[in-house]
Amino acid sequence: MNLAQATVLLWVLGSLQAFEIVEKENIFQRTPCPAFLMFDNAAYLADMSFELPCHCKPEEVSAVVWYYQKHLGSGHTKVLTDFDGRVLTEAAQVRVGSDMLVRFSIRMFSLLVFRAQPEDSGLYFCGTRKGDYFYAYDVDIQSSERMVATFKDQGQEPFADEYHGSLHVFTTFWEWTPCDRCGVRGEQWRIGLCYLQSPDLSPRYRKTLSDVVSCGSRAVPRQLQAKARDHVPELLLRSCLVPCEKMIQEGVMALFSYVAKVGSRPWLPQVPIQFHQQRLGHGLIISCPGARPEHAVAWDKDHQYLYRTQYLKGVNGSMRVFIDHGNHLHIRFTQLEDRGIYYCWRQGVRIAGLRLGVTSRGRYPVSFSSAEIRAALVLTLIGYLLITAVFITIHLCRCCCYFFRCYPNFSP
């Protein structure tokens, strides 16, 4: 490609990008803002990332400001912006438990919240720095702590719908994920969130279906939320089997064929493998690169398939190795038998591996972010408080006995 062709190509790309920006601006010109502010209901599972588009704004507004309130009309309001509309946050840099003020990003007037937590549930407003609102959302982040898994291969069925007078509580399932493995028996699942139907909902909240919102919506009165509290999210699983698509790295294989001798070709791993050394008896959490809770993720140890039917969190309360609802692999109290290569599948493709080594030597710095350290400190503090309470109780009893024995009669 010569200089003239490259110049023409860059001009065409720049024109297309400018056309795309103009098209996005024309959307706001064609979409008038509602005269009366309504709230769109949206529900997600904990640890998911979501996007809230600002569907309308005045033409003269060049940068939007997002606001967050826990409850409508509450005095405490969070401002989610740098007042320029250019907040940039990458999902890979977000840690679990971080405050929402470091877990959001604003791109093309849309608000992105990474790794949402139940505490992020509430009302989100799109507006200006002066406090004028254009569009609003009612977001419900449902916790996965009490999520119930249902295995269709074992004949199990999802929760039945609940009826409390005019209140109807049910589970709404998402689409099935792709098969998490290829070439061998895999698993696929669908996430189900709690929804309810009632004629007693607030009219300020826009609903996809008539009188239907998620169970944690601000449109639901408190007395109805209490009745739907026991209807937890569900995870429906079933087996699957799909063939693998052949992906041959022709350049790499040709290079190794040229360099290596016939019959002595070096071993070439199919996926990138990282090495990690873990201390004996310590816990470990392994994440699949680029995976999110809604993705189909699978784990293997060497040639052993870790199926969720046996290794999903909550299947057995005494499991030392398990997979949580966020697709992370947990190893509690690492043992020598845990050594090996742990492979990660994402959306039916094996993408990475971790070679785990276990050692009983070496010094590790003490960190309060470690779950074992925090648990030990909590147990020590509880023990200290119990001993202190017993000590004070014994001395109070002795003082009372001494007082009543020395002064048995208070009458003149």
UniProtKB/TrEMBL annotation:
The chain crosses the membrane at residues 375-397. Gene3D superfamilies: Immunoglobulins. Its main location: membrane. Keywords: Glycoprotein, Membrane, Signal, Transmembrane, Transmembrane helix. It is found in: Membrane. One of its GO terms (cellular component) is membrane. Pfam families: V-set. InterPro entries: FAM187A/B, Ig-like_dom, Ig-like_dom_sf, Ig-like_fold, Ig_sub, Ig_V-set. It comes from the Eukaryota. Residues 1-18 form the signal peptide. It is a single-pass type I membrane protein. Residues 266-344 form the Ig-like domain. Belongs to the FAM187 family. This is Ig-like V-type domain-containing protein FAM187A-like.
